């Protein structure tokens, strides 16, 4: 079983509240989303594992069980071309839960006209594989978002 923790402090709002049909429709995978606390922030690894994909606006960490967890920093933030994002890790890095991955500022994302909401998704999982999914609660960075069986 994998415990997935929040890469950011904020409010867990659930995927249905994400202003993007690909995430809200669970097309990428099940999980939840975090409306991040406003101000400069560092997104951290939600599980121990290897960074298999890393972009300014999104990253995937795969744990020892082969569970890939996508953290997407904001919606449509790929259109910002990395502006306002600083990579703190590299693809291929082995990370521990809580290690810094990307520095960014949700306020700047909003100022650019994008949503700062951050989907945290269990890739290639079925919805019934997740339990205790956080929704409508405040979460600290490192607080549990869901468990993956």
TrEMBL record:
UniProt keyword annotations, A-Z: Kinase, Phosphotransferase system, Sugar transport, Transferase, Transport
UniProt keyword Kinase, yes or no: yes
Any single Gene Ontology cellular-component annotation: cytoplasm
Subcellular location: Cytoplasm
GO terms (BP aspect): phosphoenolpyruvate-dependent sugar phosphotransferase system
Molecular function, one GO term: kinase activity
All copies of domain PTS EIIA type-1, residue ranges: 20-124
Keyword Transport in annotation: yes
PANTHER family assigned: PTS SYSTEM GLUCOSE-SPECIFIC EIIA COMPONENT (PTHR45008:SF1)
Protein name: PTS system N-acetylglucosamine-specific IIA component, Glc family
């Amino acid at each position: 079983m994998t415990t997935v923790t929040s890469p950011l402090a904020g409010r867990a709002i659930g995927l249905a509240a994400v202003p993007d049909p690909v995430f809200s429709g669970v097309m990428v995978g099940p999980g939840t989303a975090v409306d991040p606390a406003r101000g400069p922030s560092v997104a951290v690894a939600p599980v121990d594992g290897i960074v298999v994909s890393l972009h300014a606006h999104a990253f995937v960490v795969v744990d020892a069980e082969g569970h890939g967890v996508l953290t997407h920093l904001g919606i449509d933030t790929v259109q910002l071309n990395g502006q306002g994002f600083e990579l703190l890790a590299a693809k291929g890095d082995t990370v521990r839960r809580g290690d810094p991955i990307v520095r960014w500022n949700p306020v700047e994302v909003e100022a650019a006209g994008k949503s700062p909401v951050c989907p945290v998704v269990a890739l290639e999982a079925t919805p019934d594989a997740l339990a205790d999914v956080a929704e409508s609660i405040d979460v600290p960075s490192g607080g549990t978002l869901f468990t993956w069986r």
